[in-house]
Design goal:
alpha+beta; OB fold (Dihydrolipoamide Acetyltransferase, E2P); 5-stranded mixed β-barrel; 5 strands
């Protein structure tokens, strides 16, 4: 009887351990806020604010591709579902984003934005 209880306990613990999830939470950028790098017709390139703090937005000396290569920031091209969300946005602005659907895994990433709101102007 004692051996039987021990076996049942071992099997039970094994099942619990085997069924547990050991998922690691990605500690990456969530794409909800960021800094505008470029505005292009119906889409905007946004990067994680912490990745692009030392950029001289006024000079315009670096192209978008050069900036992406040099700084390699977490970045995403957002296609605005409401084109008026892009009115007045410029490089250096901080924005808040509501995504619509999945994020395409590329570099920079790509997604549709249900809403893009200006949080702080670059001035």
């Amino acid at each position: 009887m004692r051996n039987r209880n021990a076996v049942i306990a071992i099997v039970g613990v094994s099942m619990l351990v085997g069924c547990s999830t050991d998922e690691q939470v990605a500690e990456g950028w969530d794409y909800k806020t960021g800094r505008v790098i470029a505005v292009n017709e119906d889409r905007v390139l946004v990067a994680e604010s912490a990745d692009v703090t030392d950029v001289d937005w006024e000079s315009g000396e670096q192209t978008v591709d050069e900036l992406l290569q040099a700084m390699n920031p977490d970045a995403i091209w957002l296609t605005a579902m409401e084109p008026s969300d892009l009115d007045g946005l410029k490089a250096g602005d901080e924005v808040q984003v509501v995504l619509d659907g999945e994020v395409k895994e590329s570099y920079p990433a790509e997604a549709k934005a249900e809403k893009i709101s200006l949080m702080k102007s670059a001035e």
